[in-house]
Design a protein that fits this description.
The chain is α/β, with parallel strands linked by helices and 362 residues long. The chain has 16 helices and 13 strands. Helix 2 runs parallel beside helix 15 and helix 5 packs across helix 16 (344-361). Bound molecules: 1,3-dihydroxyacetonephosphate and iron/sulfur cluster.
Length: 362
Amino acid sequence: MLQTVLSERFSRLTDDQLDDRIRAAREALGRRLVILGHHYQRDEVIKFADVRGDSFKLAQWAASRKDAEYIVFCGVHFMAESADVLSADYQKVVLPDMSAGCSMADMAGLDQVEACWEDLKRLTSGKITPVTYMNSAASIKAFCGRHGGAVCTSSNASVVMGWALERADKILFLPDQHLGRNTGYRLGLGLDEMPVWDPYEELGGNAVDVLRNSRVILWKGHCSVHQRFLPQHVQQVRSRYPDIRVISHPECRFEVTQLSDEVGSTEHIIKCISESPAGTNWAVGTEIHLVNRLKNENPDRFIIPLDDCGCLCSTMFRIDPQHLLWSLESLLEGRVPNQITVPPDIAANARIALNRMLEISN
Ligand code: 13P
Ligand code: SF4
């Protein structure tokens, strides 16, 4: 579904008018509405979120709260899909702008994953468990559900991968090679046990022996925002600010996370910084809106982005106050705009993989 171009009556509104009308629509919808917001959302939007969180917290919320009729998801498409899969049938999930996708999720197509799976089954022996990062399409989550696998997020990847490694000889980890590598290494695997599968190469670009001796096969996907952080950025901030602490998201390259003092999900980054003593200096390797918010909310700590260009997730940025207002006012007029509905057969299998994650990590 494509995004409708908003009428000029939304783009002509001033910031104050937008705020007033969003507030009024929210109030009129009352308990029928819940607004969920991911930490990368801009301030003008996140301030209206009833619940803010990382992907895991937002999925937990969707699975446990059955009271709101409308869930307006200020985040990206795969998050809204997961909320639809985990919420009750009478709950309707709305993504304010349909162009809020995720380039990483688009890097693993179901046909490509099925082809990889067939090759792995044919060429290797033993059990393989597929694990997909939350940042993937519902069809990929369903694939994992069908094959005894699970979903993970950046806050529970170690637990989920540990669970899978105990049960299987190999993991096929989709679609973020960096999260897979960082987590596998943390669990004690060697880099040579984690080859990368390039879906555009014959056998993923690997020799058969390499696949046979592997423990984790890493899909060749990445986050274009986090991949921009480089080891040189860590070296630069450390030479400029000798007592700085570097904290990065596990979607960053292995070389960056290895040089960091702390690595974790957006929720972990917030907790670490807000609980650190006043006067602590931090360089943060994640999306710029979260870094700026941390800076504003912690004036007694020195906080800078790890890369001075400031990495922006342009798809998260698609959700703006104009689209939020349009969504809420449409709901008030009795229309459900941009409803995210995962087809029932895909949803059933995706739910298995998502619920498995929730069980493993609770
Ligand atoms: P978390 O909020 O789960 O850490 O995920 C970051 C992210 O990239 C979401 O797209
Ligand atoms: Fe996708 Fe990266 Fe944006 Fe997260 S930050 S939504 S992984 S492109």
